[in-house]
Hints:
By secondary structure, the protein is mostly helical. 59% of the residues lie in helices and 5% in strands. Helix 3 (30-46) packs antiparallel against helix 4, helix 3 packs across helix 6 and helix 10 packs parallel to helix 12 (323-345). It holds the Pfam family Lyase_1.
Amino acid sequence: MNFLRKRFNKGLRKEVLEFSSSLKFDKRLYKYDIDGSIAHAKMLGKCGIISKRESCRIVKGLEEIHQEIENGKLKLRNAEDIHMAIEARLIQKIGSPGKKLHTARSRNDQVVLDFRMFLRDAVGEIIKLLRNLQEVILGVARKNLSVIMPGYTHLQHAQPVLFSHHIMSYFFMLNRDAQRLRDCLKRINVMPLGACALAGTSLPIDRKYVARLLGFSSVSENSIDTVSDRDFAIETLGHLVLIMVHLSRLSEELILWSSSEFNFIEIDESFCTGSSIMPQKKNPDIPELIRGKAGRVFGDLATLTMTMKGLPLSYNRDMQEDKEPVFDAVDTVKECLKIYISLLKNIKVNKDKMYLAANDGFSVATDLTDYLVKKGVPFRQAYSIVAQIVMHCIKNGKRIDELSLNEFRSFCVKFKADVYKNLNVKFSIESKKSVGGTATIRG
């Protein structure tokens, strides 16, 4: 806008405008910018800073601009940012009253207002998607409630567990993700408008009124902090990173489980692709892509933290770089959650293959240790005895449950005939009744 150049003798070079313009990415904030401007105009009219008639004309003009953008009639171009594009169109539509809209505000507080409103909605949408994915995981667990699989540590067989217990671990990861985001909303939902450039204003504004109109639970308390702060965005990105950590770990397991070596699950063909030269291939593309996209979101967090590091107070143009990493992370997380909701609904569990892997003859070794502990043998001694039994089985090519009672007693006289019921994987699972354990019914 020409009035921004009144202090200068020269106009802005075309290449400088193109380089410095944020319109190509911040135009997606138009709804929030218009909503914020409408609330601001209503407040200016209520407080007598502009006339009620001017306030109404501004509001009507902004509502019309919203419709123009929605209908594709207004092409946003040749502006420094979405805020100036909308203001310029408003002045073009209604004339002099439009020039009063920016009274008692700055782009510094206007930008952060739009950003907070965007994130407030985005976080709400992600929380809903997390809940939907949790419901799908719960459905998968219920459908496969009695399926037994090997549990792993170090990607080595450890102890038998229920598949439903394993998949539900992701339910609780996502539950924490949603809790963190809900808590983060408290710090996002703080109304910044009225901080102006950095010092506030001498005009008699009513910030709490604007907060009520826009649904904010509180107003910011320090004008310098208000326009300088992007903690709320960095915090949100941190939580989105954790979501992607969890989705990436799930992706890794689905990739492994769908391989020929595991064959624990089948991913529906509609989520897989083939090879350009190998006709037999069925590739788990979606989990692989999500595993890869996790790195993008991690990078988005690094981008914003590095942008903010070392900036003097208050606003600096560097902070224009705050939106793209947040937009990218929000869009990526939403896409990944949506596709996983569909993918997991259509997953097939190969319960026989899982059971065969769990019943490998050694996964009940810990249960054998617990058996001796219940007979009064100190744990470390019991551990040593069972380790020797395992070595004996490996040397003689036997499973633990194939040993005779005399063989067991040659290692420890505490072994009785009841030892064999402890060597069944189903018994092993149902014995884990401690709170949070893998048993069907827990204490």
